[in-house]
Amino acid sequence: MISPAQIRMARAGLGISVRVLSERANVADSTIHRFETNRGGMQTSTLERLQSALEAEGVVFLAADGTGGPGVRLKA
After folding, report:
1. What is the pLDDT of residues 48-68, one digit of tens each?
2. 59 φ, ψ (degrees, to nearest 5)
3. Across the strands, what pairs with 72?
């Protein structure tokens, strides 16, 4: 599962707001804001919609490995 920090990093990389992401993923902006600020969990199906919307914009989610924690990068 992707983390709140990864969603923030992905939005920053794309230069999009919570509102834009909420529209693209069909998720309430308050739900995204709550999750990003670690003030609430998120249902798996909702998190999958966010991940799919961000991936459609060119975000690649990176899992933690021996050299660092989870992250994101943009497709070339």
Report:
1. 999 999 999 999 999 999 999
2. -85, 140
3. 61
